[in-house]
Prior knowledge:
The structure holds 2 protein chains of 2 kinds.
Chain A: E1 6-14, H1 18-31, E2 35-41, E3 48-58, E4 69-74, H2 95-98, E5 104-113, H3 119-124, H4 127-134, E6 137-141, H5 143-150, H6 156-168, H7 173-182, H8 185-203, E7 223-227, H9 228-238, E8 243-246, H10 253-262, E9 269-272, H11 276-288, E10 293-297, H12 299-304, H13 306-315, E11 319-325, H14 342-347, E12 356-358, H15 363-380, E13 383-389, H16 390-394, E14 396-400, H17 418-424, E15 460-462, H18 476-500, E16 504-506, E17 513-518, H19 522-534, E18 539-544, E19 546-548, H20 552-560, E20 564-569, H21 575-584, E21 591-595, H22 604-616, E22 626-628
Parallel strand pairs in A: 1-4, 4-5, 5-6, 8-9, 8-10, 10-11, 11-13, 12-13, 17-18, 17-20, 20-21
Antiparallel strand pairs in A: 1-3, 2-3, 7-14, 12-19, 16-18, 21-22
Chain B: H1 34-47, E1 55-59, H2 67-70, E2 74-77, H3 83-93, E3 98-104, H4 105-111, H5 113-122, E4 126-132, E5 135-136, E6 142-143, H6 167-174, E7 178-183, H7 187-199, E8 203-209, E9 225-227, H8 241-254, E10 260-267, H9 274-280, H10 303-307
Parallel strand pairs in B: 1-2, 1-3, 3-4, 4-8, 7-8, 9-10
Antiparallel strand pairs in B: 5-6, 7-10
Helix pairs in contact in B: 1-7, 4-5, 5-6, 6-8
Amino acid sequence: MTDQELIWRIAGGSGDGIDSNSRYFAKALMRSGLDVFTHRHYPSRIRGGHTYVEVRATPDGAASRGDGYNFLLALGDSFARNPSEDAYYGNEELKPLTENLDDLREGGIIVYDSGLIDDEQVEEINLEERAEENGWHVYPVDLRGIAKEHGREIMRNNAGIGVTAALLDMDTSEYEGIMEEMWEEDILEANLAVIQDGYEQAQEFDQTHDLSIPDHDGPDEEQALVSGSDAIAYGALDAGCRFISGYPMTPWTDVFTIMSQNLPKFGGISEQVEDEIAAASLALGASHAGVKAMSGSSGGGFALMSEPLGLAEMSETPVVLVEAMRAGPSTGMPTKPEQADLEHVLYTSQGDSSRVVLAPGDQQECYEQIRTAFELAYDYQIPAILVYDQKLQGELRNVDASFFDREPDADPGSVITEEEIAEAAEHHAGKFKRFQYDADDGKEGVSPRSVPGQKGGRFLATGNEHNEAGHISEDPTNRVLQMDRRLGKLASIREELDEKGNQTHHGPEEAEYGIMCWGSHQGTVFEAVDRLNDAGHSVKAIGVSDLMPYPKEEVSAFLESVEECLVVEMNATAQFRGLTQKELGRFGPKLSSLLKYNGNPFEPAEIVEGFESSIEGEELAVSNMKYVPAAGD
Amino acid sequence: MSAFSAIGEQREAEEDEFTPGIEPQPTWCPGCGDFAVNNALKKAMARLGKNPDEVLLCTGIGCSGKLNSYFESYGFHTIHGRSLPVARAAKLANPGVEVVAAGGDGDGYGIGGNHFMHTARENHDMTYIVFNNEIFGLTKGQTSPTSPKGHKSKTQPSGSAKDPVRPLSLSLASGASYVARTAAVNPNQAADIIAEAVEHDGFAHVDFLTQCPTWNKDARQYVPYTDVQDSDDYDFDVTDRQEAGEMMYEVESKLYEGEVLTGRFYRDEDRRSYGEEKRATGEMPEEPLAERYYDEDAEWERCAEQLIDKHT
């Protein structure tokens, strides 16, 4: 597979057009019939600084970022330069070249912008020597010059596309088609000229490399290039969500923005509000009034939501919250992924928790599971949290477009009609028995729900313990009945989740060893499992999506069937392994951990290496990961 | 037929419709000013012919939050300081519902101060009643944001070093389009003002002076009150921001010294409510959003139809 893939990395400063350019490039490859997967790396900075995006293209499925890369397009960081003078702020314009060399594979291609990075600087970093050692093929091109000649310097990313296409024997028509859809005539023409110029110049080069666009057939069906955030937003819209409230925070902002831009088209409402406490409270207010609502944030903002989250549990107000994790604690690393908010989403807020927590493993699961979150929240009158991370947020992947073509769910859940309220005749002290102990609609613990404006449905929603009509009550018998009813919902929810089959299995069923993961690394782990089996190991994997209620039976069966299991997660304290041991109460000696928390996601090769070290009982050779052996070893 | 037939029903309402069938044992102390708020709210709602099923009362935490137990309507007893964000979203989701939020001075001007400022700024169409007794009552007598400077309490034994919050000026400066102050000792004025506030199309803030006979015996809530509109000494145009602001400043400077003035301080009938503004920019549907879920003819578009082109 590795021979048949291109991993193209475009590097520059934030604001150099890396993001949009790589998106078009990925889409062009997708349209030409390749499977694509992108990976984004960026600093917490608006302009300048080192940023890159990788586009991986293979003919036969790409589920992760891959290992390293084989084509570098180093634009030079224009924001490192003082544009008014020829003076430089240090040597940052060189970073797109220097910062990326460690991951470039042997025999890889380097294209750098000689209009921004001059020969003297290149000499200082011994590029020639390193290129020789690694078999790299280096092509300096004055991308800045090409762009300036046809208009503006900012277009040098497109000069780079032209050069890329010439070096890879790639047809530029798909890319140009995308540009035509995006740009107005005058800007378009200049950009097309830049692409063409770059293409022609590169054709003149003495080409020494043997990398080209992978062979591929045309696509079976129309593909859509989507990120985890796109899939979450579209899943929410198809789930009938028509109200969102939020406060901007990276990486949650992505979902919030996509929803805000689209909700009015669907007749919905988006509210950007003063803080995250307000954001979650607004979602509760809209939901109380009868509209399917969501809110969300990232670690620090979600911390503020713990108060309304608890209110949603106690008042049984349905709501869906999205938690887009980034590295913590506190503000942590705003633009770097981590899976360290697991315990935060499971246990935040006071009292005994009854909530649903789901963690999708890829783009399709993002779409499916946000729909499941809405369904469960509104059927069971319980908050549902969808937790994902900065990695899945920004990664683009092609998915069959027909996957998203599904019937919207307009069912408001367990809300009853005025006619049903009139028939219920179980009014208590003039109020509707909203929190009836023994209501039976086939779902354990779920009582009938009315919304303001309905005749005869008056009730009080409160965060205090309350009786069946919602009046505050500290009666011990009522307390136990209400607590048991609320907590009892989780058992029914577990059954529904089992029917949906949210957990994803990969690899031969009879395998000797297991790998467990949750959330965004699923694809990377599955790719590593394939490689391990190809190399003669016997390994299977499970990607667990349901975190609360936990899929005890399914995970127990998985762990019983293997000798040992490596738990792969992106945090320093093995939170998911801890949850598994807590929920199952056994298997401690079978579970070891492979952890990474340096801000960069796992590559498949790292998981392969971590697995091999773990079964050999050897120390990890790489320093950016941590191995935690099984308890009792 | 609408799924919300209680909304806008033409009727003659009785005050006791807003009293729960079996009234729970009140947890308010004998002589508490909160009873007066409850009575005034019931009177106002009856006068306006409201149906308890079309009213949503959102409260915060504290003695004021208990209002939900003694006032019959749909209710959401939320969390400390958060009644406003819950209330305003409910109003956006179903503009037909009459939304009233209530809280105490700690709840509204302290912990919920940020929400107060922003709800006023956005001019949501709702009524906000703040039970202002200048003390934390439910936690047994600590200094509140409206306690006068020098006020001694268990948590400020040497006397508070802080100037009190000026709720009327704060409200006006933040953008409220109706600002009034009333008091438990003026029940008729209180009912009139709350009725006006409910009728007002925009954010109506009513600072309601209530006495706390248990924890704040020395407070000025017991002295006689003057209605600014009834007195020839105070001549200002209630629709003029600047005059209203000057008047409020004067009144709030004197609250702890001389005469206590109540009445209407500001009214702007021209400013559009937030919902109208949002509709004007196309950010909010014309029909109440909540209705869509019950409307069998409503068209629910798939995301694929509108969005997938962007990605293919």
